[in-house]
Design a protein that fits this description.
With 212 residues, the protein is of the alpha+beta class. The protein folds into two domains: 8-89, Elongation Factor Tu (Ef-tu), domain 3 (Beta Barrel); 108-198, Beta Barrel (Elongation Factor Tu (Ef-tu), domain 3), CATH 2.40.30. 17% of the residues lie in helices and 40% in strands. It has five helices and twelve strands. The chain has helices at 33-38, 68-73, 130-133, 165-170, 188-202, and strands at residues 8-18, 21-27, 44-47, 50-58, 61-66, 84-89, 108-118, 121-127, 141-144, 147-154, 158-163, 181-186. The strands form two sheets. The chain has a six-stranded antiparallel β-barrel with strand order 1-2-5-4-3-6. The protein has a six-stranded antiparallel β-barrel with strand order 7-8-11-10-9-12. Strand 1 and strand 2 (21-27) form a beta hairpin. It is globular, with a radius of gyration of 19 Å.
């Protein structure tokens, strides 16, 4: 479990193909060296919002393995050496939740459809499959590449978020361009609400016929 409060950006050092999956080697530096220093085998760390398991620690390099399912549902398979990725360690019991509850289980890949920059601030629009738009509502929460954000404008096939300078500076969202793909995780509560409403509808009694 995570909060969507990204600690900073790591850098992809290697992408090693291991059919049917891939090994990702992420280099840490600066303030993020503490993550590598404290990392242990089996620990969960979110890479662009996707929960992965540390399989090897080599100095300031962390190794992860991503399977076929993960690669098919996320943008991790399109990463190249040198790319920046958002990093967040898992939430600890008793730790303050400053964002929202993020599971690290990516629902789909969205695409940056529009970017409006106003000085150091930005409003970004993302398109996602309509299947997942049903789980979004204005002022609700969404995780974009692992960053906890508040939904602003929610339409049939896209949504917008307003980004402050701090978020733009310490996450990959600051360098997004039109067409770039991002990992999307909807609010876990919205998933259960949609599921419950669907089950209720399936078991609803048929309408009473009108008798003249």
């Amino acid at each position: 479990m995570f909060t969507g409060l990204v600690h900073g950006m790591g850098q992809v050092a290697q992408c090693i193909v291991q059919p049917p999956g891939m090994r990702l080697v992420i280099a840490t530096s600066g303030d993020l060296t503490a993550i590598a220093d404290q990392a242990t085998i089996g620990q969960s760390i979110a890479i662009n919002g996707c929960c992965l398991t540390v399989v090897e620690v080599a100095g300031q390099h962390l190794h992860f393995e991503a399977g076929a399912e993960t690669l098919s549902r996320t943008n991790l398979g399109k990463l190249n050496p040198g790319a920046r990725v958002n990093l967040e360690t898992s939430l600890q019991v008793g730790q303050a939740v400053g964002g929202h509850f993020v599971t690290g289980h990516i629902d789909c890949v969205g695409q940056c459809a529009e970017r409006r920059d106003e000085g150091e601030w930005s409003t970004l629009y993302f398109t996602v499959p309509s299947r997942w738009m049903r789980q979004m509502a204005s002022k609700g929460s969404v995780a974009v590449d692992g960053v906890s954000l508040t939904l602003v404008d929610v339409q049939d096939d896209r949504f917008s978020v307003a980004l402050i300078p701090h978020t733009l500076n310490i996450t990959t969202l600051g360098s997004l361009q039109l067409g770039d793909e991002v990992n999307i995780e909807t609010d876990v509560l919205a998933k259960y609400v949609e599921r419950s409403l669907g089950l209720a509808s399936d078991h609803a009694p048929p309408p009473t016929p009108w008798i003249d």
